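Work package 3, deliverable 3.1, input record:
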Amino acid sequence: MRVFAKLTLTEIKLFLREPIAAFFVLFFPTLLVVILGSIPSFREPSADLGGARVIDLYVGIAVALTLAMVAIQVTPAVLATYRERGVLRRLATTPVSPLKLLGAQLAMFGLAAIASTALVLAVGRLAFDVRLADNFPAFVLAFLLTAAGTLAIGIFVAAVVPSGKAGNSVGTILFFPLMFFAGLWTPREVMPEVLQRIADFTPLGAGERALNEAMTGGWPNLLSATVLLGYVVVFGFAAVRSFRWS
Amino acid sequence: MTVIEVRNLRKAYGDTVAVRDVSFSVEAGEIFGILGPNGAGKTTTVESISGLRRPDGGTIRVLGRDPGDRSLRDDVGVQLQESGLPDKLTVREALDLYASFYPAPADWRALTRELGLGEKLSTPYAKLSGGQKQRLSIALALIGGPKIAILDELTTGLDPQARRDTWDLIEGVRDSGVTIVLVTHFMEEAERLCDRLAVIDRGQVVALDTPAGLIAGMDTEQRIRFRPSAPVDDALLEARPEVRAVIRHGAQIEVVGTGNLLHAVTSVLAVNEIIAADLRIEQASLDDAFVQLTGRSVKE
Ligand SMILES: Nc1ncnc2c1ncn2[C@@H]1O[C@H](COP(=O)(O)OP(=O)(O)O)[C@@H](O)[C@H]1O
Ligand SMILES: [Mg+2]
C-alpha cells in the first residue's frame, strides 16, 4: 500500500509537470462554463430546452468533457508512452508489478477528474446558480459509469497503438466526434432526432445524458447505463486481451 | 556455489530463432560475461534469466528458483538494454521511488556519488545525457541491494572515461559480494572485467572460458621481438614446443609461436641469464579470439 501511494503521488507530480495537459484537464472545462455563462442569453430559461437554461446543460457537458480529456486524450498517450519507453518493462524486473503502476495511473486520473468536476460544479453553482439536484448518488453513479466507459476505451487504445505519439493522435481523432455527440457544439436537446439516437449509443453521448438526468433529479436511464456498461465490458475485455507490456 | 544455471535454453520469435542452444552456469561472486555480436541472442538470454521472457525450451534456475518466481525480484537487479523512465521524473525521485520497492534497499545517495550522478539529483530524466541515463539505469539495477546484478550493454553510449569509471564501480560491486552477469560486445570490457566468458554467436555458445584461456586456446601465431643482452643460440629457443620460428633482424630476434609463448621465451632467457631489452609482444587479443570463434568481427 505504501508503494501504491508513492506511485500515485509520483504520477500526480508528473501529471502536474505537463502544464498543457494539466490545464486542459483541470481548468478548461471550468473555463468553458465561465465563458458560456458570461453570455447573458445563455442564462435565460429557454423554451427550446424545456425551460432549462443553456448554462444548465453546459455544466453537465463540461463534466463529460473532463472525462473525455482524461480518458480519451491523456490516458492513451501516457500509457502507450510508458510502454514504448520501457518504463513498464523496467518495472517488471522489480518486486513491484507493472499492474500497480497502471493502478496508480488510474487513481491519479480519477483524482484529476474528480478535482476538475468539483471545480466545474462549484463554479457553476456559485457563479451561475446551476444546482445539482438533491440526487447526489445518481450523479456519482452517472459519473462513475461515464468514467469507466471512457477509460475502458482509452486503455484499449493504449493497448493497441504502437507508440505514445500514435496514442496521442488516435485519442485526438476520437475526442472530437465523441465530444460532438456529448453536445459540446450543439447540446443533445437541440440536436436533430437522428443525431440524438446516434448519440445515445456513443459513450460520451450516453454519459452526458446520464449526467444531465442525474443533475435534474432523476436517475440515469436504462439505455445510457446499459450502453456505458457495454463499453466497459467490451473495451475492458479487449484491452486486457491485447495489452502488451513491452 | 552455482547461482545461475542455464541448460539448453531455446527461444524463438516467430520464425526467428534468437537462442538456439545456450548452456552455462554462473558461480557466486564472479563477473560472468556474455559476449557476442549484435543479434547473437545475448539480450534474449538474459531477459529469459530475468523472467521477462518465457523460454521455448531448456531450463533456467536462478538461486535455485524458477525465473518466473516473483520472490527473485528482491534478489536480482536488472539493467535492461532498452528501458527508460518518464521524461519529467528527476533522478532523485526515480531513485527514491525504486528504493521503496525493495525490502532492504542500498543507500542510493552513496550509489549516485559512486556513479557520478550526485550533481544531477534534481535533473529530469529527459535532460540527462545518454551516459547519465545509462548510469541511472545501473543505479536502479543496484538499488535493491541485489545478490545478482544482470547488466545488459552496461557501457554502451558512455564516453571512454565514464566507461572506465563504470568498470571500477562494477568491480567494487563485485567486491561487495554481488554476482554479476555482464552482457557486452566490447572486448576491452570483457577482458578487463570478466572472470569467465560465454561467447555467443547465432544463438549458440561457441566458447566458455576465462578471457586469458580464450586467447591462449587460439592457434593463431604470436610474435615476440627483443634485443638480447648476450648472444642467444636459436636452437635453445627452437627446442621449446611453443616456438615455431626464430627470425633474426640484425641485433633483434623475433620469435614466432603459439600458446604461452612469452613464458617459453622468458624462461629460456632466464636460464641462460640473458636479459631481453626492447621487448615487444604482438599478442593476440580477445578480438582475434573472437574473430576466430565466430568468423567475424564483433563490430559488424
Ligand atoms: N521481440 C522480438 N521480436 C522478434 N525478434 C526479436 C525480438 N527480440 C530479438 N529478436 C531477434 O532475435 C535475435 C537475437 O536478438 P537479441 O537477443 O536482442 O540479440 P543481442 O542482444 O545479442 O543483440 C535477433 O535476430 C533479433 O532481431
Ligand atoms: Mg542486446
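The radius of gyration of chain A is 18 Å.
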